[in-house]
Amino acid sequence: EVQLLESGGGLVQPGGSLRLSCTASGFTFSNYAMTWVRQAAGKGLEWVSAISDRGDSTYHADSVEGRFTISRDNSRNTLYLQMNSLRADDTGRYYCAKGSDRVVTAPINHWGQGTLVTVSS
Amino acid sequence: EIVLTQSPGTLSLSPGERATLSCRASQSVSSGFLAWYQQKPGQAPRLLIYGTISRATGIPDRFSGSGSGTEFTLSISRLEPEDFAVYYCQQFVSSITFGQGTRLEIK
Hints:
With about 120 residues, chain A is mainly β.
């Protein structure tokens, strides 16, 4: 059974940093692209970042470009999202999601339960 | 960036009725790069349809997808109580974007 367990969320002040982690199990992690998707309370889904199976290709939404960095450690079956210069509009639930292929241009077929990030003074 | 516009914003129907949800893209989307997701309150989204027309594993055949170019549709033939949720379309041909969602509520 595919499991994705996010951690690292919490309350941070504007301008601060946070690193999210996602530990994967139940599948060969190194064979699949991975994605972060966020959702503000009561709002829709927003794609944040994606990374290919080997980590050699990364992509970020314009809204987080230059502030967030996605990475992965295939030896640890773990996906990361380093978030710097956080703003109030970064607040929301952050979902770790597994792609259905090695490349990011494929649908997401499994989602974690998410971790909550709150940016507030 | 390809913008996806879903309509209607809210759809009120009764169990047993047919639901038709629309997703319009600001630029042409290759059919292999369009997916639909369902999200229920307090839950993570779930993949329903990929490649415009293919049902994901375990998805009942009352769900179907269609469309091409800039116009895509998710249809639910006979609504069950568990189908009332929010539905999102997604494209991944040029970057990755989601539509704003359609809320399907019980009438």
